Description:
alpha/beta, Purple Acid Phosphatase, chain A, domain 2, 2 domains, eight-stranded mixed beta sheet, seven-stranded mixed beta sheet, 34% helix, 27% strand, globular, binds zinc ion
Amino acid sequence: MKYSFCSVKLIRLISICLACLFLTSCTMGLTVVDERLDTIDTEPVIEATKETLPLYPHGSVDSSLQQVTNVKTAPRQLRLAVVGDLMVHGPQIRAQQQSDGTYDFHNNFHFIKPWLQSSDVVVGNLETTFAGSSQKYSSYPRFNTPDAFGEALFEAGFHGVSTVNNHTIDTGSQGFFRTLTVLKELGIKNMGTRSHDTNEYWQLFIHDEIVLGITAVSYETPRAYGRRTLNALIIPEELKGLINSFDYHTWEDDLVSVKEQLQAMKEAGADITAVMIHWGEEYQPQQNQWQETIANELAAAGADLILGSHPHVLQPVRPIQREAEGRTSWVVYSSGNFISNQRFEILKRHEPEDGAIFFVDILKDPVNGSVEIQDVSYQPTWVHRYWKNKQLVYEILPLTEALNQPEEYNLISSDSLIRAQNSFERTTTQWHNLSMLPLPVTEP
Ligand SMILES: [Zn+2]
């Protein structure tokens, strides 16, 4: 398209300058940029700005300025989605193996994907390692999962995972470092472990000019010969300083570094900070005293979100008021299992089949820079496992939808349907009745 009038060129030039100034101010102060998120993030802003450019001769300076102002003052929004333990047990490995010997986990996430992809940042706890096929694929007590699981997580919409938990060194140093490489190649950020002690344990996620900082930390199992352990394995010398973990007996000293990480994330521009923490007791529906004390301590240190995992069942959610700052921290003691083979058939208990996506809506005023957690909500999930063509099928179901249209979500057998209904009851009891969260959201 050609423009023959000087005035049009001038208008265009002014508008481009305004847009450039705006975009520059948007990105100032952010030191770490997530390439994948940034691509997604900046798009709406650029699009909105493009509209304000007088690409057509009928555009006027006044209306363009007005639109730029509106875009500048509109509240910024980020929705975070948090899930619990991502586990792969032996029957899952076998179920996902294809006829050509390769692995494919995509179907696990088929029904839940819209719920993840409607969020701007999606994180969970990766309770396994990607040591590759040089070590045999394995599950409890030492987890080694095919890389294809990571690919499925990426495709499902995950942006980040905590890599620190009691299974971090299940496959030794080789598996430890390879897990980081696999995630990096996939474009999934990891928190809580690092390949070099000059890297950080935390990551920044940026969307719509809101910066979310997330770090991750795990409890350690009791020391052996005075040395720190995970899953009763002594942390190898070469991994010292690469794993963000704490001993329950020395947690006050050990968590000093987590407080420093909270501070460092803020200094790097984080508007909201989160600690993903692996803690508590397996299969306990209530948090223990350690969890409460540590949660209070982290909230006092400025953590806005404390996101727990490890118990494999849902534990309560609770707000902690930080009166001095006028802010509220939210603690999710445990988000349960997002996917696993821990279920009634194995453990004689149903609760480990339950999970939830915990949503956090963050709002930022671009004019005065104030940030608040506007809302928290959740979607109950359940791992549906059934037989099809002599193969086990695992599908994570969004229960508000699946219970409304059971057949569309493959809830065909009466046993599956009843179990899904009971799961919904348990989760809403735990998170609605006991934790006083609103009822589950019904739309992604
Ligand atoms: Zn664990």
